[in-house]
Amino acid sequence: MGKQGKQRAKERRVQRLLEIAELRKIPYSPVDRWWSSETVAVVTGANRGIGYEIARQLASHGLCVILTARDADRGRATADGLRGEGLNVEFRQLDVMDADSIKSFTKWVGDKYGGLDILVNNAGVNFNTGADNSVEFAEKVIATNYVGTKRIIETLIPKMRPSSSGSRILNVSSRLGRVNGRRNRVGNATLREQLLKDDCLSEELIDGMVTNLLHQVKEGTWASNDWPQMFTDYSVSKLAVNSYTRLMARRLADRPEGHKIYINCYCPGWVKTAMTGWEGNATPEVGADTGVWIILLPSQQATTGKFFAERREISF
Ligand SMILES: NC(=O)c1ccc[n+]([C@@H]2O[C@H](COP(=O)([O-])OP(=O)(O)OC[C@H]3O[C@@H](n4cnc5c(N)ncnc54)[C@H](OP(=O)(O)O)[C@@H]3O)[C@@H](O)[C@H]2O)c1
């Protein structure tokens, strides 16, 4: 994109954020508020950043929020702070990389609440900033962002409570994981095509892609292959999350009325958090907005298998 193109894109983004700021002032009407103070929303990695903001905003809309974090002290202190503001927030430890932690969380949420209505998979890691592109931590990045998200979804789906409004799963992802991203995509055209075609998309295909990257990282051959050029391991992990979101939407599509589960993903934008070294062009509050908007979509507008940014659907 040339200098002028970048300038125009920036102006469009600023304009859209102004529009969203206006939209956020409009309160939800009673007919659109499908949730209540009994609606249970679980947010992973919510002790800071975008996850914290999603938890705070959902609680501000009157939901019961389970704020989870891998570090119990940090998570508890964060939840205490939100409760101090009068919000209905409870802390529970959850490390998305730790099978025992997931198991114990799943039992607890089932015993205490009879399950959950909303799951936000926000926990994530990225070890690169700026122009860096090291794959030193590729295994951890894939294990947290993709495998962790997948494991949490698989384990918690049976605990999702029946509801006439449908229960909801949201994966916090990134435009860096777009199949046909203009500047950052997998070079293999066949793989791109397979990822986009419903009858080719499978868990084996997605797992195969991430395994292939990790194998090449071990062999030291990844750089000469056609992987996304920016934050390679992170971009592939988010491409996997996006593809898995579409796959799960299809798997969940046949559930009967009253047992529907809607699953979507979104990109929060470039947000000033610890992950970006506090660089970015949006605050965590703004970055959380589209996520909260998708989760709270009125029942008639609820949708599944989509990718969003700035309160609009975008292409995978
Ligand atoms: N910031 C951006 O520009 C941007 C853009 C696109 C997408 N995203 C996505 O947004 C999400 C939140 O990122 P952020 O920017 O808010 O970054 P952040 O401030 O670094 O927050 C990441 C959160 O994930 C938690 N986490 C990491 N590994 C975990 C694990 N194994 N189990 C449970 N929690 C774990 C972290 O916990 P600790 O505090 O214990 O480390 C932290 O709470 C991520 O999925 C990220 O990929 C961010």
Automatic annotation (TrEMBL):
Main enzyme class: oxidoreductase
Stored Gene3D superfamilies: NAD(P)-binding Rossmann-like Domain
Keywords (A to Z) from UniProt: NADP, Oxidoreductase
Keyword Isomerase: no
Family assignment from sequence similarity: Belongs to the short-chain dehydrogenases/reductases (SDR) family.
Keyword set includes NADP: yes
Protein name: Short-chain dehydrogenase/reductase
Matches recorded under PANTHER family: (+)-NEOMENTHOL DEHYDROGENASE, SHORT-CHAIN DEHYDROGENASE_REDUCTASE
Native source species: Canna indica
Lineage: Eukaryota, Viridiplantae, Streptophyta, Embryophyta, Tracheophyta
GO molecular function (one): oxidoreductase activity, acting on the CH-OH group of donors, NAD or NADP as acceptor
GO cellular component, as recorded: membrane
Assigned EC number: 1.1.1.-
